[in-house]
Write the structure tokens for this entry.
Amino acid sequence: MASVLGMLEERETAARVRVEGLREEAVRLAGVLEAAEIELDRRVIAREELVEALAASAAGTAAVTGAKAETACSPAPVAGSIVPPWRDGLPVTVLAPDYQRILSVFDERQPADQGPLKARQITVGLGLETTSAKVEGVRSKARRLAERGWLLQETSGAFSVGRRPVAGSVAGSSV
């Protein structure tokens, strides 16, 4: 009996070591993912700034009609586009479809269910599998919406409806 118990303890110890190793790897990968997201945001902003500068240069040499100016100010959302800071009067339709779907999860809730939602609950509301990859993707997008004022992030990590202007944002900002 003692040898069987010893073997089980060895297996348990090996499992604990493996779990700790995987936790450390997950933390490291979360840092790498965050750095990659920041780099992506910077590159998208740089591209949009260049497009705006080129458009302003072109506008100086040619007359722009009202319809063209409105199109230049509010381009159609594209999958993977950045989230503009929320400001009063800005429609949800300026967001990419994935972000619109996240906000629609909050809009579709019953009045009695108005408490904050965890990323897993939002993932379920979107009809996605609750794998860690899907949940982390939704959490990342919800966090971005909260950073830009479209949602509020609670200290518990849950998200709730509530729009607020973001400090430093201006009406024409592309951030």
Q: What stands out?
A: The longest helix spans residues 2-61. The first strand starts at residue 151 and ends at 153. Residues 77-175 form a domain with the Arc Repressor Mutant, subunit A fold (CATH 1.10.10.10).
